[in-house]
Design brief:
Layout lengths: L30 H7 L19 E6 L2 H4 L3 H11 L4 E2 L1 H4 L6 H10 L1 E8 L7 H17 L2 E6 L4 H6 L3 H12 L4 H15 L3 E3 L5 H16 L14 H11 L9 E6 L6 H12 L5 E5 L2 H22 L9 H11 L5 E5 L5 H5 L13 E6 L2 H7 L3 E4 L5 H13 L13 H8 L3 H11 L4 H13 L3 H12 L3 H14 L4 H10 L4 H10 L4 E3 L2 E3 L2 H12 L11 E2 L2 H11 L8 E3 L12 E2 L11 E4 L4 E2 L11 E4 L18 E3 L20 E3 L20 E3 L21 E3 L22 E3 L20 E3 L21 E3 L20 E3 L10 H4 L9 E3 L21 E3 L20 E3 L22 H5 L8 E4 L14 H13 L7 E8 L12 E4 L2 E7 L7 E12 L13 E6 L3 E6 L13 E9 L5 H4 L2 E6 L3 E12 H12 L16 E6 L4 H4 L4 E4 L6 H18 L5
Parallel strand pairs: 1-2, 1-3, 3-4, 4-5, 6-9, 6-10, 7-8, 8-9, 13-14, 14-16, 15-17, 16-18, 18-19, 19-20, 20-21, 21-22, 22-23, 23-24, 24-25, 25-26, 26-27, 27-28, 28-29, 29-30, 30-31, 36-41
Antiparallel strand pairs: 11-12, 31-37, 32-39, 33-40, 34-37, 34-39, 35-36, 35-38
Keywords: Hydrolase, Leucine-rich repeat, NAD, Repeat
Enzyme class: hydrolase
Pfam family, one: C-JID
Length: 1176
């Protein structure tokens, strides 16, 4: 049984607040007779309403540490634990910092049994004597059971306080002359307890005596299972956790139901039995019904009901009553009692319904525990909590294996010990597997161990598979097929990929996958399907079982050697192969000489996935039953002639040698997906006229494709079409009757020979159109205006001169990328109108012929990102100040810009949509970038107020950025770092470390940094540093960097100084806690003048905005610093390349909040939805 491992989050609590739904039967006329005649239960208290004591421990051990702690007590304690007995030993449970004496005394009161180990020096310790006196008091007041063990002393010396005990008490009498009542109390207690039942273990084998003690304790505790259980490694933390979930205390009168769920062999029954033993004494009546599913199969619901009544009421004469009468007895007789009922191994919901136990009618404080392999049973039944039993952690798994294989917790070194990691890897933390394998290997030598491990690779142990196979046998046929597919082929693959293939094969994975997960046969982690090694081996064993040496008669093939064998056998004999999925990582010499002709004989084949292409011969035929065909590197120029094509759903032949997929028309009525990506020999697409159900076509990277059959325009269910990097394609004719009404993604990027865009008529629902790097594309068809659903349009790198006026109709457009359109001259006057109000991102970077931005840009009120890098504009329109959501403005290398207009001063609180639409946007920095300027402005324009205004508005509305942002502006003689704001300033080579700061201030928003720099030579050798220019946070072993965005790095020929302002929001300022050394670093071609920083508070932003609104800023006093920062500063004049030499360089460690992660996942889901269009 595995203990809770913090690294494994498999244990899930799912609270439920519904009552149990139970079937109630009508009351029986015999009920009153039974109530009069029934005898009382032996487990039932004489006073059901009495206040029970609740115990935290089963056993308290009282001992003299110096005498017995490291020998007898240590063995006794660990054997009690092994048997599931919760023992208290002071060095195991005491919490540091609390009073030991009071805690020990309370531990005694919280224990059901006390064991006193009288040793030679026991009586010399007043501490031990106080423990003993308290035990005697608990025996008298609460009836606590006490056992005495005489370790190395004569029992008569203890009873009479003679010998060494007499000497000890003489010393105590002398010491406590003023408090002799204490000594008398100790003597009375010792005499009483020494006369209790006990063991004289002197000169006897300790192992034998300890076993006697434990059996006596188990009998006293009435632990039903502990006497038979052994090696309960790591179970106690789990039991303790479940006790807390059950909330057992006298004040809790609610009825609670707990479900214990997990795969076969994981220890559900063991956990339930130990929990039952631990808590059963707290109830008026209790019963543990083992293997409920077996009881139902052998005797229906009434057999289980009778077991419950016999064990809770001791009613024996139940066979004469009908099912309805039994149901009435359960309802009426159990309603007034506080019950504990454990129902073990429930495998159908009906088994619970038919018991007729209504939790609303049970006695107050009752508890029901259900163990099952099927989570859905628990969820549908409406229980209060589900405990998912986890696999054992590595430490507990090793301990259990040592006990089973070596009969020791600490085995001596041997050659067998070297093999234990292999066994643990095989068992994968499954307790049953560890026990079975470990027990088999006990007393065997290393060569036998190795032989057994080799056998396990081929044939799993039958004891294991028999247990695991129960879950498989209970599945529906389709779910069995899904299980076998996953076991043989798809373990570790992405869930969406596996579901797509299974759906293609008609197996309904949307219900089948959840069923397997509910029954603990698979787990879903990180969107991948995982399966325990034992279950995978079970699946493969079931496939091979009837014909272990004849792969052609198996239903599935997954190894290359078996595939080769089956192909050779298929040419001459019978075959039953329905699915072949070869591991792409497996390379076997035989495959290179494999004759492919045998594949034509596999007539029942439905699923074929191959990654090999070196075959001999030709392929004349493929199974007409094929539903999914994927052959990476398909070696033939076309598909073989196979008829009918009636069942094929998906055809995937990437990197193939196909020239023409098929000749003429082929009627493939169910074909939905075709992937011929990177098939370099493909020269034309087939006629799709009779393939009306096609949803996805992928011809990415088909560099010799020159002709697209116009019938493609008739595919009204087509959702995804990619012709990316089809560099020979010059024309895309979608036909005169184009009706691609379902098409949402059209990717034509990299079609370098495409000289005009297609006619978009008939593509009314297109959302994503990518024409990036279509370097011959000079015009865009006017029909683009019909794409009213279009959200993304990229013409990056095209040679278009203008955009058609119809682009105004793109009312849904959010992203427009026209960057590197080097010939684009007049797009903007035609683009901007109220129809484009949805536009979020506009990229005109490196459009060298654009020299004017029209006033109408102000109507783009949703615009958040505007890139004008290297544009030739002399000015920007004043209407830009209306763009209140603008968070990114790139004016890098705009060398003709004569003035900067008034920028937006206030931010709209509803910005940040860009981050919700692009999953990688978290790395796309917000900011303002002006890295070159007209020299005429050098003495007349101060950029710093504009920069600080931009700074204030973003800080005030953090929805406009993620983690942080930065600003780069030119600096002139009148600006520099404003000392009235950046109150901590240093020389360029200075290093700062934050020693203390005002962490408790709720108004603290983050940190701002500012540095001034210039290029001092044209040839900046960036090889000195891994980064060109960055803000460094240096710790002992790592260096984190916040670097200048590559898209706005300053022109190295620039004459002048720039300022770089950086803001990092509070949640990401971990450097204040780590004490990292902070400084700016740059290559030798750059000179750092000064840098400064400020701890930013909410009131600072308010004061900053007020100051920026005033006309004369020079006369204003500095903004008060309320940070209470304590810093250390040093100037470092060193070779920067050597200072980072031994450090691990990392990008700045942004903390990802849950909100940001959800935002990213939602954006990623939208992108995946588009990229996966056409897949089931």
């Amino acid at each position: 049984m595995g203990s809770k491992d913090p690294s494994e989050k498999a244990r899930v609590w799912r609270p439920k607040f519904k009552s149990l739904l139970c079937c109630l039967q009508s009351p029986s006329p015999m009920d009153s007779k039974l109530q009069d005649s029934a005898s009382s239960c032996t487990h039932q208290s004489t006073d059901p309403n009495r206040n029970r004591r609740l115990y935290k421990h089963d056993v308290f051990l009282s001992f003299r540490g110096t005498d017995t702690r490291n020998n007898f007590i240590d063995h006794l304690y660990h054997n009690l634990i092994r048997k599931g007995v919760f023992a208290f030993k002071d060095n195991e449970r005491l919490q540091k910092g609390e009073s030991i004496s009071s805690q020990l005394l309370q531990a005694i009161r919280d224990s059901r049994v006390s064991i006193i180990v009288f040793s030679r020096d026991y009586a010399a310790s007043t501490w031990c004597l106080d423990e003993m006196a308290t035990i005697a008091q608990c025996k008298k007041e609460f009836g606590q059971k006490v056992f005495s063990v005489f370790y190395d002393v004569d029992p008569s010396d203890v009873r009479k306080q003679s010998g060494v005990y007499g000497d000890a008490f003489a010393s105590h009498t002398k010491r406590f002359q003023k408090d002799l009542s204490k000594v008398k109390r100790w003597k009375r207690a010792m005499t009483d307890l020494a006369n209790s039942a006990g063991w004289d273990v002197r000169d006897k084998p300790q192992f034998t005596e300890i076993d006697k003690i434990i059996q006596k304790v188990i009998k006293e505790l009435d632990h039903r299972f502990s006497g038979f259980a052994d090696d309960l490694v790591g179970i106690q933390p789990c039991v303790k956790e479940l006790e807390q979930v059950l909330k057992i205390n006298p004040k809790d009168e609610d009825v609670r139901v707990l479900g214990i769920w997990g795969m076969g062999g994981i220890g559900k029954t063991t956990l339930a039995s130990v929990l039952y033993d631990k808590i059963s004494y707290m109830f008026d009546a209790h019963c543990f019904i083992e293997n409920v599913s077996k009881s139902y199969r052998e005797g229906s619901a009434i057999s289980v009901q009778r077991q419950i009544l016999r064990r809770t009421l001791e009613e024996q004469d139940l066979d004469k009553y009908s099912p309805s009468e039994i149901a009435g007895i359960i309802r009426n007789r159990l309603s007034s009692r506080k019950l504990l009922i454990v129902l073990d191994n429930v495998d159908e919901r009906e088994q619970l319904d038919q018991l007729a136990i209504n939790t609303k009618l049970l006695g107050r404080g009752s508890r029901i525990i259900i163990t099952t392999r099927d989570k859905h049973i628990l969820e549908s039944y409406g229980i209060d909590a589900i405990h998912n039993v986890s696999l054992m952690n590595s430490q507990d798994a090793s301990e259990l294996l040592f006990r089973k294989a070596f009969k020791s917790d600490r085995p001596s070194s041997s050659t067998c010990m070297e093999l234990t990691p292999i066994i643990l890897e095989y068992a994968q933390g499954l307790p049953l597997a560890i026990k079975v394998v470990g027990s088999f290997l006990d007393k065997r030598n290393a060569s036998q161990w190795r032989a057994y491990l080799e056998r396990l690779k081929k044939y799993p142990d039958k004891k294991l598979t028999d247990v695991l196979q129960v879950s498989f046998e209970d599945l529906q046929n389709d779910d069995k097929e899904i299980f076998l597919h996953i076991a043989c082929f798809f373990r570790g693959d992405r869930e969406d990929y596996v579901k797509r293939i299974l759906a293609t094969c008609g197996l309904q994975p949307n219900i089948g996958i959840p069923v397997l997960e509910e029954r603990s046969l698979i787990t879903i982690k990180n969107q991948e399907i995982h399966m325990h090694d034992m279950l995978q081996e079970l699946g493969k064993k079931l496939v091979r079982e009837r014909y272990p040496e004849e792969p052609a008669l198996w239903s599935r093939l997954w190894r290359c050697s078996d595939f080769e064998n089956a192909l050779m056998s298929a040419e001459t004999g019978t075959n039953h192969v329905k699915a072949i999925v070869l591991d792409q990582r497996e390379e076997m010499p035989g495959c290179s000489q494999l004759r492919i002709r045998g594949l034509s004989k596999l007539r029942d084949l439905k699923l074929l996935i191959l990654y090999h292409k070196n075959f001999l011969g030709s392929l004349d035929f493929l199974s007409p039953n094929l539903q999914y065909l994927a052959w990476h590197g398909y070696p033939f120029p076309s598909l073989p002639s196979f008829q009918p094509y009636s069942r094929l759903v998906e055809l995937s032949l990437p990197y193939s040698n196909v020239k023409r997929l098929w000749e003429g028309n082929k009627n493939i009525p169910h074909l939905e997906k075709v992937d011929l990506s990177y098939s370099m020999d493909l020269i034309e697409t087939p006629n799709f006229e009779w393939n009306a159900k096609l949803k996805r076509l992928d011809f990415t990277g088909c560099t010799n494709l020159i002709h697209i059959h116009p019938s493609i325009g008739l595919l009204n269910q087509l959702a995804y079409l990619s012709l990316q990097n089809c560099s020979s394609l010059s024309n895309l004719n979608l036909g005169d009757d184009c009706n691609l009404s379902s098409l949402r993604v059209l990717c034509l990027s990299g079609c370098t020979n495409l000289n005009k865009s297609p006619d978009f008529t008939g593509l009314s629902n297109l959302e994503y159109l990518d024409l990036e790097n279509c370097t011959s594309l000079s015009t865009v068809h006017e029909s683009i205006g019909a794409l009213v659903m279009l959200k993304f349009l990229s013409l990056r790198g095209c040679i278009i001169i203008s955009m058609p006026k119809e682009v105004n109709n793109l009312i849904s457009l959010q992203t427009l990328d026209l960057s590197r359109c080097l010939r684009l001259r007049y797009p903007l006057g035609q683009i901007y109108s109220s129809y484009l109000e949805s536009l979020i991102s506009l990229d005109l970077g490196t459009c060298h012929f654009i020299d004017n931005i029209p006033d109408s840009i102000g109507v783009l009120t949703c615009l958040e990102r505007l890139n004008l890098k290297e544009c030739q504009c002399s000015h920007l329109p004043d209407t830009i100040k209306k763009l209140s959501r603008l968070a990114y403005l790139n004016l890098a290398d705009c060398s003709y810009l004569e003035r900067l207009p008034e920028l937006p001063f206030d931010s709209a609180p509803s910005g940040g949509r860009y981050f919700q639409t692009v999953s990688a946007s978290r790395n796309h920095r917000s900011g303002l970038y002006v890295t070159t300027y007209n020299k005429v402005m050098k003495k007349t324009f101060n950029y710093m107020p504009a920069a600080l205004s931009w700074f204030a508005r973003l800080v005030e509305q953090p929805c406009h950025f993620r983690c942080g942002f930065d600003i780069i502006i030119p600096e002139n003689e009148s600006s520099g770092i404003p000392g009235w704001y950046f109150n901590h300033q240093f020389q360029g080579g200075s290093t700062v470390r934050v020693v203390d700061y005002a962490d408790a201030d709720d108004n603290w928003l983050g940190f701002s940094f500012c540095v001034t720099f210039e290029h001092v030579k044209n040839d900046c050798d960036s090889s000195e540093l891994l980064r060109h220019f960055y803000l460094s946070f240096e710790s002992e072993h790592t260096e984190e960097y916040f670097d200048m965005p590559s898209s706005v790095e300053t022109d190295r020929d620039i004459d002048g100084t720039h300022a770089w302002i950086i803001y990092i929001s509070r949640v990401h300022c971990h450097f204040v806690k780590t004490g990292a050394r902070i400084r700016f670093k740059a290559c030798k071609g750059m000179k750092l003048h000064k840098w400064g920083f400020r701890m930013v508070f909410k009131q600072d932003i308010e004061k900053l905005k007020r100051r920026l609104q005033r006309v004369d800023n020079k006369k204003q006093s500095p903004i008060f610093d309320s940070s209470r920062l304590v810093i250390e500063t040093e100037y470092v004049d060193e070779d920067l390349s050597s200072s980072s030499e031994s450090k691990i360089m990392l990008p700045y460690n942004w903390l990802v909040t849950d909100e940001e992660e959800n935002e990213k996942m939602e954006a990623k889901a939208k992108e995946d939805n588009l990229s996966n269009l056409g897949f089931i």
